[in-house]
Task: inverse folding
C-alpha cells in the first residue's frame, strides 16, 4: 500500500528533448491553422476576393463575373453584363455541356424568353429592351467535384471560364 509519505516523494524529471520537439510541433500546427483561416477569408475556398473573376468576350461588349472556386451543393451566381449597347435587343448566351455536366442552372434573372437545348449545351435567349444593355444572372448549383473549363458562347464568340468545384 502506498502511504502519503511515498506519494510526496515522487520525482518528475523534465524531458527537454521532448519539450523542444513539442514546442516546434505546436508552432507549426498553429501556423498551419492560421494559414488555413487566412486562405479561407481571402476566398481560396470560395466566395472571396481570390475566387472572384471577370472574363470578357474578345469582340462582343459582354463581361462575365463569376467565382473560380466553388463549393459542391452551395449556390453561386454568374453574371453576364452588356458593357456597351448591342446591335440588337436580343442577347443569346449558350452554356457549354461541360459546365452543365458539373452544375445545374436553377434560374435566371431576368427570366429567359426561351431556353433551347443544342448539341453543345443550352442556349438562353433574353430580351434587353430598347437600350440594348443590361445584366443577366445565372444561378448555379455545382454538383460534381473537380476542375471544369466552362464554355460560354454569345453572338458567335466563345469564352472559356476555368472553374474548380471543391467537395
Result:
Amino acid at each position: 500500500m502506498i502511504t502519503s509519505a511515498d506519494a510526496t516523494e515522487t520525482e518528475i524529471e523534465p524531458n527537454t528533448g521532448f519539450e523542444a520537439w513539442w514546442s516546434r510541433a505546436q508552432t507549426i500546427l498553429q501556423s498551419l491553422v492560421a494559414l488555413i483561416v487566412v486562405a479561407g477569408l481571402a476566398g481560396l475556398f470560395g466566395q472571396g476576393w481570390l475566387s472572384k473573376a471577370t472574363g470578357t468576350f474578345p469582340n462582343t461588349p459582354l463581361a462575365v463575373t463569376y467565382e473560380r472556386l466553388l463549393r459542391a451543393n452551395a449556390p453561386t451566381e454568374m453574371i453576364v453584363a452588356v458593357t456597351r449597347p448591342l446591335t440588337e435587343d436580343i442577347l443569346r448566351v449558350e452554356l457549354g455541356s461541360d459546365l452543365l455536366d458539373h452544375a445545374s442552372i436553377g434560374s435566371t434573372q431576368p427570366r429567359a424568353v426561351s431556353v433551347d437545348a443544342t448539341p453543345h449545351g443550352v442556349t438562353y435567349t433574353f430580351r434587353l429592351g430598347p437600350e440594348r444593355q443590361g445584366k443577366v444572372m445565372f444561378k448555379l448549383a455545382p454538383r460534381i467535384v473537380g476542375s471544369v473549363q466552362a464554355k460560354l458562347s454569345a453572338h458567335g464568340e466563345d469564352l472559356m471560364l476555368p472553374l474548380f468545384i471543391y467537395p
Observations:
- The chain is about 25% helix and 45% strand.
- The chain has two domains: 17-46, 52-166.
- The chain has a mean pLDDT of 88.
- The domain at 52-166 is CATH 2.60.40.680 (Immunoglobulin-like).
